[in-house]
């Protein structure tokens, strides 16, 4: 009998998003509420090496120390999948059912200056819907860089 990694087994409690846009709204609410257990149920951890207890405890989502950057980012200190305040911009299919979700946040600096902050995270599309993948990615993928 093969021993399977606990992350390869889909839990009955696994949750799925209907769309990437809906995922961003729900993830933001769960991050603000610090509902790590529910948020972790939206993750597909297959072949990731990430243990579910790291997500359920909140350790996976938060920086140990507040990152350098704009004041609002230091207060939140969320490293995955994104800090609350970002909005869905678009998504692209990356192959193998993987989806890259692109996010934007506009910050009014006053005097007509608008600063844009960009972020991205990965999802996987399955028959049940969309789930978050734990890998970290950049907004600026190779396709973007090749087309500049």
Fold topology:
Blueprint: H1 20-32, H2 36-40, H3 52-56, H4 71-76, E1 87-95, E2 98-110, E3 113-126, E4 129-132, H5 142-146
Q: How does this structure look, described?
A:
23% of the residues lie in helices and 27% in strands. With 148 residues, it is of the alpha+beta class. The chain has one domain (14-146): Nuclear Transport Factor 2, Chain: A (Roll). A 4-stranded antiparallel beta sheet has the order 1-2-3-4, covered by helices on one side. It starts with 19 loop residues before the first helix and ends with a helix. The relative contact order is 0.18.
Helix content: 10-25%
Describe the sheet with the most strands. Answer: 4 strands, antiparallel
Strand order of the largest sheet: 1-2-3-4
- Output the number of helix runs: 5
Which CATH architecture is right?
A: Roll
| Average residue-wise pLDDT | 82
Quickly list its features.
148 residues; alpha+beta; Nuclear Transport Factor 2, Chain: A; four-stranded antiparallel β-sheet; 5 helices; 4 strands; globular
In short:
This protein has helices spanning 20-32, 36-40, 52-56, 71-76, 142-146, and strands at 87-95, 98-110, 113-126, 129-132. The protein is an alpha+beta fold.
């Amino acid at each position: 009998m093969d021993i399977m990694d606990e992350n390869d087994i889909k839990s009955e409690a696994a949750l799925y998003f209907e769309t990437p846009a809906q995922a961003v709204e729900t993830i933001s609410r769960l991050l603000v509420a610090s509902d790590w257990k529910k948020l972790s149920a939206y993750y597909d951890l297959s072949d990731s090496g990430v243990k579910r207890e790291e997500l359920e405890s909140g350790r996976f989502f938060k920086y140990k120390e507040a990152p350098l950057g704009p004041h609002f980012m230091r207060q939140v200190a969320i490293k995955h999948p994104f800090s609350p305040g970002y909005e869905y911009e678009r998504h692209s299919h990356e192959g193998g059912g993987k989806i890259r979700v692109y996010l934007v946040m506009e910050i009014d600096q006053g005097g007509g200056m608008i600063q844009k902050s960009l972020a991205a995270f990965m999802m996987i599309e399955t028959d049940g819907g969309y789930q978050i993948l734990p890998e970290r990615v950049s907004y600026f993928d190779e396709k973007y860089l090749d087309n500049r």
